[in-house]
Structures are given as structure tokens and as C-alpha cells.
Design a protein that fits this description.
The complex is a heterodimer of chains A (about 450) and B (about 100).
Chain A lengths: L4 H21 L5 H19 L9 H21 L5 H27 L5 H28 L13 H21 L3 H19 L7 H23 L2 H24 L4 H10 L19 H9 L3 E6 L1 H5 L3 H13 L3 E6 L9 H8 L7 E3 H4 L8 E5 L8 H4 L18 E6 L19 E5 L2 H14 L1
Parallel strand pairs in A: 1-2, 1-4, 2-3, 4-5, 5-6
Helix pairs in contact in A: 1-2, 1-9, 4-5, 4-8, 5-6, 5-7, 5-8, 6-7, 8-9, 11-17, 13-17
Chain B lengths: L2 H18 L8 H11 L3 H11 L3 H30 L7 H9 L1
Helix pairs in contact in B: 2-4, 3-4
Classes of the chains: A alpha/beta (about 450), B mainly alpha (about 100).
């Protein structure tokens, strides 16, 4: 079957649209246009595929599946709460990897033993990478959804089991390329799926976004390999683009979080990433009542709010904005300090606060706000911990050492709204909590904020 | 298309992929990842192609599943990315707040 020239040219045009889409997504001004360009490209490619004269035996099944799949994608993407968005992205990535793996399996069955060496090679590669991306993404989903623990899961001799499974996968892959038999592909599927799970299990919560990005790049490569198998240039280009840009993005994310990529990857094997303690110490801390805190805030000249994931979990974004508005109405200078990885992923907090209609201009990024802390009277930290932990600057043994943090400790006074003394995602203690200038208010972020707001109104 | 031509396309695409996202503010990391995630949903085409030629029931079932998963990835990916970016629009939020203050 030959692809008509017009179809080849359309594929080229769609590939260009995908490149432009990624380009536009890299800049805040054009990002939304980028999504549109990409979606239009995908739509054109999908619709036109039906008219290129390819064999379409099971047309009804195909159309029904597209409709059902689109409906599931649309509804889940529209309904998801913004706090749960990272795990939905992980899930979408996983099903994409699964789709690529399945395409390769079907192509393997269909080829029925006849094919070139490269054909078998790329079929096997697609099965492996697609399956790893699928099972790995499902585990990251379970971690982010907190269906399973976010802490690193270390199974006994896990490192050796993982290496054994990896070696087994490679061995069976070679075997399957040499003698393409279906049971070998099934074995390969099982091993690859197991490897994906073993790879992600030991990753600590703080490293999960990096792993999602990495698995995203993996799915891209699986799609590229499937493009080779099917002799489809568009799949090859689109998959490669995602694989390459995803790799760059992964290393940029790792850098923003102060975690060398190698530590995340090899940490995943040795089970030491972002580990730490869950112990609760009984050292004395100073805690204040909501009205104490309202007075501190209400008579300050300059206040900086530091929102963290705890705020998002408690769905307290609007309450925090109400507090900020009240303070601003009293003539107090109010800003939000956004750590690059506040929330669960880079940029997540910006999305959550924008959803609560916080004006974009009030959101200050770390580099911009850090010099301002020393001239700030009160810093209110809501549900954040690791991103303000001075141990990242001072304690070389801390898992977060080297991560850029918000210099909250240089401010006049610091107020923490926290559920408990439990350490943050990285599992390490925060010395700042015991500092004499720190006041704690324990409880759910939303309840605490609501109490502070009503005390502030009564001032 | 022969192997060398596909390899050429692959290598060039790698470089384009590297270059196109070289400078991105951290704020956009997640939307960009999500957008890239949507783009690889184009694997849907692969699902359609293999299902179109599928013969045995097993091939049809697995192919149909690939189409289903690909469509979820493609459509869901773009919609969730758009929802994230919707939030970055310049807001007119301060205006109603000011009116409340005045009233």
C-alpha cells in the first residue's frame, strides 16, 4: 500500500503543527494557542487518515472506540479537580504508552513471523518501552492519588530484583527478535510491566513529577518506535519530538527541584531518593491562637504568603485570597511567593491560585521574591514545609540539600499553618519550626485560615 | 520508506525536540509536559492502522483497545492542558473586589 502524496504532505504539515505547538507551549503568552495548534494538527491527521485509502476492515469498531475514548478523555479532563491534575496527566501518559505497546503486539501478531530484523527490533522496543511507561505511570498515579504511600517503597533486595528483571527483559527481547514467537512477546510484556512497577516503587513523593516527565518522554519514544514498525512518518516524528523535548524537560525539572537527574534515576534503583524520617519529635514549639496571628498580620506593613500543597489539599485557595484581600484593604503590602515546585509539580501552584482568581501580578516567583523577605514583617506559610526548609542550604546530609528554597527565615516573623509537626514530602525535619521567631497554628489549612480571617475582620 | 530515510527523520526530529523547548519558565513545565503528553496521543493513528488490517479476533480486540487508549490520551491530554492554561489568562478579578470595597 502506498500513501498518496497529498497524504504525505498533510503528514508533513501536521508534524510542523506539532513542532509549532511545542514551541508555543514554551512561552506563557502563546501557550494556550500552542494547545490549540496541537489539537488541530491531531484532528486533521486523524480525520484524513480515513481517506488515505488504507485498509479499514473493522471500521465500526474503530469509530465506536474513538468515540468512547474521546468521551472518557473529555469528561475526565473536564471533571478533574485542579489539585488532582498531575495524576490525571500521569494516567493519560500511561494509557498512551499502553496504546503504543498494544499497537506493537497487534502488528507482531499480524506479521505472523515474516519481517525484517529492524521490524522485529522496533516491535520489541515498542512493547518494552510502552509497557514500562504504562505500568510506571499507573504506579505514579496511585502514589499521587495517595491510594498507596507516597514514601519510597523499598522491597527486600529490591535493587537485585529490579536488575534481574531488567536483565531478563533484555534477554527475552534478544530471544524474541531472533525467534519471533508470540509467547516470548507475552513474557516480554510481563517482564516490562514488572520493570515499570519496580522502577517507580522506590521513588519518593518529591521525585514523582520528574518520573512522570521521564515516563512521558518514554511514551514518546515508544510511539516513535511504533511509527517505524508501521512505516508511519507522522508517528515517528511526533513520538521523537515528545521523546526529545520530554528528556530536556525532565532535566530542567530536576534542576529546578535541585535534584540531579542521575540521583533520581539511580536512586530509584537503590531506594534512597528523598527518603528520611516520619518521626515526630517532641521539641517545644511556639503556637499561637488565630486571633494572635490576625493581630500579627493586621498590624504588619508587609506580608508575604507562601502557599504549599497543604493549602491545595484543604481547598483553601479562596480563603487565602480572602485573607490577602482583607490585608490589602488595610493598606498592607501583600504578595504570594511561589516556589517553582510548590504543589505537586512545577507550576502547579500558579494554576491552583489562578483558579481561585488570585491576580497574576501578585504571584512572585522565587528569584524575584527572595530578596524581599528580609524587609518583610510577617511571612505566612500555609501548608508548605520543604520549600522553606533552611536545611536545603545548610545541611549537606539532607535529601533536599542544594534545592533552591524561599528565604523565609530572613523575615521578621514567620507563621506556619500546618496540620501537625509531621515533616514534609521529603521526610525531613524543619529547623525553622523551632525558631523563636516562628509561630505555629495547627489544624486544617482552610479551618485555620477561616478563623484568622474572621479574627481579622473583628480587629 | 527505507530505513535510512526513517533514521534521518528520527535524528533530525531529536534535534528539533531538544531545541524547541530549550528555555522554559518553571511555571510552564507542567503545561508543557501535559501538551507533549497529548501530542504522543497521536499513537491513536497507529491503533487505527493496525485495527484496520486486523484479522483474528485477538488482533481486533487488542487493536480496538489501542484505539480506545490512544483516543483517551489524545483528547484528554489536550483538554486538560487547555484547562491548565486557561488559568493563566490575565484576570480582571481585582475589579469586582474593588467594587465590593467601595460598596
Amino acid at each position: 500500500m502506498n500513501t498518496p502524496t497529498w497524504a504525505q504532505l498533510t503528514n508533513l504539515a501536521v508534524a510542523v503543527l506539532f513542532i509549532l505547538s511545542l514551541k508555543a507551549l514554551s512561552s506563557p503568552k502563546s501557550a494556550r494557542l500552542g494547545t490549540l495548534i496541537g489539537a488541530v494538527g491531531a484532528l486533521i491527521a486523524t480525520v484524513l487518515l480515513f481517506f488515505t485509502g488504507i485498509e479499514l476492515d473493522n471500521l465500526i469498531i474503530i469509530v465506536v472506540m474513538i468515540v468512547i475514548g474521546s468521551a472518557i478523555g473529555l469528561v475526565s479532563a473536564r471533571r478533574v479537580k485542579m489539585t488532582q491534575m498531575p495524576q490525571l496527566v500521569a494516567l493519560f501518559n500511561g494509557v498512551g504508552g499502553g496504546a503504543a505497546g498494544l499497537v506493537a503486539v497487534v502488528e507482531f501478531l499480524h506479521a505472523d513471523g515474516s519481517g525484517s530484523f529492524l521490524f522485529w527490533l522496533f516491535t520489541v522496543v515498542t512493547v518494552i518501552i510502552g509497557s514500562v511507561a504504562f505500568s510506571g505511570s499507573i504506579v505514579t498515579y496511585l502514589k499521587l492519588q495517595e491510594i498507596m504511600t507516597t514514601r519510597p517503597v523499598v522491597i527486600p533486595a529490591g535493587k537485585w530484583v529490579t536488575m534481574l528483571v531488567a536483565a531478563g527483559t533484555v534477554g527475552v527481547a534478544v530471544w524474541a527478535i531472533a525467534t519471533p514467537e508470540f509467547w516470548l512477546i507475552l513474557l516480554l510484556l510481563a517482564l516490562s510491566l514488572a520493570f515499570g512497577v519496580l522502577f517507580v516503587l522506590p521513588v519518593g513523593g518529591a521525585d514523582v513529577p520528574i518520573v512522570i516527565s521521564l515516563l512521558n518522554a518514554c511514551t514518546g519514544l515508544a510511539v516513535a518506535a511504533s511509527g517505524y514498525v508501521l512505516n508511519n512518518v507522522l508517528l515517528l516524528i511526533a513520538g521523537t519530538l515528545v521523546g526529545a523535548s520530554g528528556t530536556v524537560l525532565t532535566s530542567m525539572m530536576a534542576k529546578a527541584m535541585g535534584r540531579p537527574l542521575t540521583a533520581t534515576l539511580f536512586g530509584a534503583f537503590s531506594g534512597t531518593t528523598a527518603g528520611g524520617t516520619t518521626e515526630i519529635t517532641d521539641r517545644p514549639v511556639r503556637s499561637g491562637s488565630p486571633s494572635d496571628i490576625a493581630i500579627m498580620l493586621g498590624y504588619a506593613g508587609k506580608v508575604i504568603l507562601v502557599p504549599g500543597y497543604g493549602l491545595a489539599v484543604a481547598q483553601a485557595q479562596s480563603t487565602l485570597r480572602e485573607l490577602a484581600d482583607l490585608l490589602a484593604a488595610r493598606g498592607i503590602d501583600v504578595d504570594y511567593a511561589i516556589h517553582p515546585v510548590a504543589g505537586r509539580m512545577p507550576g502547579h501552584m500558579n494554576v491552583l491560585l489562578a483558579e481561585a482568581s488570585v491576580p497574576y501580578e501578585q504571584l512572585k516567583e522565587m528569584d524575584e521574591i527572595n530578596p524581599e523577605f528580609s524587609s518583610t514583617d510577617v511571612v505566612l506559610v500555609v501548608g508548605a514545609n520543604d520549600v522553606v526548609n533552611p536545611a536545603a542550604r545548610t545541611d549537606k546530609s539532607a535529601p533536599i540539600y542544594g534545592m533552591p528554597i524561599l528565604d523565609v527565615d530572613t523575615a521578621g516573623q514567620v507563621v506556619f499553618l500546618k496540620r501537625s509537626m509531621r515533616p514534609g514530602f521529603a521526610g525531613i525535619e524543619n529547623e525553622l519550626l523551632f525558631d523563636p521567631k516562628t509561630t505555629m497554628l495547627f489544624g486544617d489549612a482552610k479551618e485555620s485560615l477561616t478563623k484568622v480571617v474572621s479574627s481579622l475582620k473583628a480587629l | 520508506m527505507d530505513g535510512v530515510a526513517l533514521l534521518t527523520i528520527f535524528i533530525l526530529s531529536v534535534f528539533v525536540g531538544f531545541e524547541v523547548v530549550s528555555k522554559v519558565s518553571t511555571v510552564l513545565h507542567t503545561p508543557l509536559m501535559s501538551g507533549a503528553n497529548a501530542i504522543h496521543g497521536i499513537v491513536l493513528l497507529g491503533g487505527i492502522i493496525v485495527t484496520g488490517v486486523a484479522e483474528t479476533p485477538l488482533e481486533v480486540i487488542l487493536g480496538a483497545l489501542a484505539v480506545l487508549l490512544g483516543a483517551i490520551n489524545l483528547v484528554g491530554g489536550f483538554v486538560v492542558t487547555d484547562r491548565m492554561l486557561e488559568m493563566f489568562k490575565p484576570k480582571k478579578a481585582p475589579v469586582p473586589t474593588d467594587q465590593e470595597g467601595a460598596a
